[in-house]
Amino acid sequence: MLVELFKGFYLAGRHVYRAVFKNGMVTVQYPEVRRSQPVFFRGRHRLQRYADGLERCVGCALCAAVCPSEAIYLEAKENQPENRVSPGERYAEIYQIHLLRCIFCGFCEEACPEEAIVMGPVYELASDRRTDFISQKDDMLDPPEKGFGDYHVYDPYISHVTPESDKEAKADPWALSS
Ligand code: SF4
Ligand code: SF4
């Protein structure tokens, strides 16, 4: 009995020692401090823009077709010369994701040929209003002033697509997954 007791003290003491003297603290002061997420973390969806401000989404609906939860709804519209929204023929006029249906599988970002829809590092999804769980296009779309940036920085609006990775992905879509 006493042996087991001292074993327990030893174990607890070892953890305290590591935490205090060996930089082993695992507690973060959330929400002031947030852990950075790995590159392929699948958090809240974002719709990205090109550096010139055009939307990457061309309204092809591949993301909606591949979604196993049928969580994506979009309506595409033709671009007009006087109102060009994306580089393609069309753009998504309406783009919604039902977050209560979404299982965060990442198939939509895998299927997107334009790297338009991506899943970012934001994991805070709680709300007490049901309507907050229908993500609208404006909720997801990067602000126009945000260009290419460092994905690891905690900023939900910074793009992780660099001009170089964009060229690589267009030349060989499998290059980024290998
Ligand atoms: S992450 Fe999966 S379930 Fe969620 S919208 Fe994308 S494809 Fe659908
Ligand atoms: S997000 Fe990508 S896959 Fe979905 S409609 Fe836009 S371009 Fe197509």
Walkthrough of the structure:
This protein has one domain: 2-Layer Sandwich (Alpha-Beta Plaits). The strands form two sheets. It has a three-stranded antiparallel beta sheet with strand order 2-3-5. It has a two-stranded antiparallel ribbon with strand order 1-4. The longest helix has 20 residues, at 2-21. It is built from five helices and five strands; from the N terminus they run αβαββαββαα. It is elongated. The protein has helices spanning 2-21, 62-66, 107-111, 137-140, 163-171, and strands at residues 45-47, 72-78, 90-98, 117-119, 134-135. The protein is α+β, with helices and mostly antiparallel strands. It binds iron/sulfur cluster (2 copies). Residues 57-63, 74, 92, 111-112, 114, 116-117 line the site of one iron/sulfur cluster. One iron/sulfur cluster is lined by residues 57-63, 74, 92, 111-112, 114, 116-117.
